[in-house]
Specification:
There is one protein chain. The protein is an alpha+beta fold. The protein has three domains: 87 residues, Nuclear Transport Factor 2, Chain: A (Roll); 142 residues, Roll (Nuclear Transport Factor 2, Chain: A), CATH 3.10.450; 114 residues, Glucose Permease (Domain IIA). The chain is built from seven helices and 23 strands. Helix 2 packs antiparallel against helix 3. The radius of gyration is 32 Å and the shape is globular. The two termini are 42 Å apart.
């Protein structure tokens, strides 16, 4: 073995005497640096439109020279979209090292692209139709505190987090049921063009593991255009009634036969649920209904009463104001905003007083077993199973990846 090592260490007849080393250097003449910026190179910059920002302010952030901005603004008047920038949209600009604008691209909508191009010393603007690329994005995360804190950490858009909370709101009370260590996985649509995200689309599938119990939702549209979210077995996740009229608030006072009233200073029954929330927080109808009352009524302050199918009705009190179109006789759909949190009537602070009534009698909505919506039609069950299988498989992969990571 040592012989083999030696064979690789020294070649035959190698002279091992000391070798004289000598340092050698040569001076090279380098051209003097040109400190004058000729503008011969350029670069791409990308910025998102801020709230209240004008095109002039955006061009300054993109590095466009002040003398260029006037010419750009004059040309931009040819299209209304550049005069009214949409907050959150992306603008991509090619700018020279001296601040000369070479080209600019802006997506005012999912299907339109505006290109502003330099031609010699002038600019031209063109608006073209585009077809964005739709991708299915998978994200997963773990609850450490709040739902939105976990979704932000997992880079899940707020719109997807809200959709997930809405879908599971009949099974999970996000006010009380969240546990540290709860896990979620989501699959959703993302629209992009040339690598830039234009918008977030629909939530396609989700799994939420709450206190060890798994809940799954899979999106399906039948041949007649009716769509919704279903369990893997085909049960409709949409309930006839939402559990809560607001997705993310704190219960400040529960349903009780005896409670000390903070304004009247006496013990009396509290036949509803109080949700504490800032003034102006939107309030949703918990089910399809007809408005039977919309006005001021005693200690309730501004009050909306909705008449639902059959024996059910709901009441919403202390509103700061009513949503547009909410008046007696108006029809509303489940999830529609009917008003906004306030402190009108007998209230010490902003909150919603919510009542669930059966035959006119107040019941505790958190203790009632509420009916489901219509199930998946029998003739579409096989189509449903084949359509949602790829989504279910991706949820399995997301869960298995997490399990492997924890192991």
């Amino acid at each position: 073995m040592f012989g083999v090592v030696a064979a690789f260490g020294l070649a035959p007849d190698t002279v091992t005497d000391d070798i004289t080393q000598e340092a050698w250097s040569q001076a090279l003449e380098l051209p003097a640096p040109n400190l004058t910026d000729s503008g011969s190179f350029d670069f791409w910059r990308e910025e998102r439109v801020n709230s209240g920002e004008t095109l002039a302010h955006l061009l300054q952030r993109l590095g466009v020279a002040q003398e260029e901005i006037s010419a750009v603004l004059a040309t931009s008047r040819e299209t209304k979209a550049l005069g009214h920038l949409t907050v959150g949209r992306t603008v991509l600009a090619r700018v020279s090292s001296t601040g000369r604008l070479i080209s600019l691209q802006y997506l005012p909508a999912e299907d339109r692209l505006i290109t502003l191009q330099r031609i010699n010393n002038a600019f031209s603007v063109q608006e073209t139709a585009i077809k964005p690329e739709i991708q299915h994005v998978t994200r997963a995360g773990t609850i450490e505190g709040s739902l939105f804190g976990a979704t932000d950490a997992a880079n899940v858009p707020d719109s997807i987090a809200s959709q997930m909370a809405e879908i599971f709101s009949s099974d999970i009370d996000f006010h009380r049921d969240l546990r540290k260590g709860d896990h979620f996985s989501v699959i959703y649509e993302s629209y992009s063009y040339q690598g830039s995200t234009i918008k977030t689309g629909r939530l396609l599938a989700a799994e939420f593991i709450n206190n060890g119990q798994s809940y799954r939702a899979l999106y399906f549209r039948d041949p007649k255009g009716r769509d919704g979210y279903y369990t893997p077995s085909g049960q409709n996740l949409r309930r006839a009634f939402l559990k809560s009229p607001m997705p993310f608030t704190r219960i400040s006072s529960g349903f009780s036969g005896a409670r000390f009233h903070p304004v009247l200073k006496e013990w009396r029954a509290h036949r509803g649920i109080d949700y504490a929330a800032p003034t102006g927080t939107p309030i949703r109808a918990v089910a399809d209904a007809v408005v039977s009352t919309a006005g001021r009524q005693g200690g309730y302050g501004n009050l909306v009463i909705l008449k639902h199918q059959g024996i059910y009705s709901t009441a919403y009190g202390h509103l700061s104001r009513f949503a547009p179109g909410i008046k007696r006789g108006a029809r509303v759909s489940q999830g529609q905003v009917i008003g906004y949190v306030g402190s009108t009537g007998l209230a010490t602070g902003p909150h919603l007083h919510y009542e669930f009534r059966v035959n006119g009698e107040q019941k505790n909505p958190l203790a009632l077993k509420l009916p489901n919506a219509f199930p998946l039609a029998a003739q579409y069950r096989s189509l449903y199973a084949s359509t949602v299988k790829p989504l279910a498989d991706r949820l399995d992969m997301a869960r298995n990846s997490r399990t492997a990571f924890l192991d």
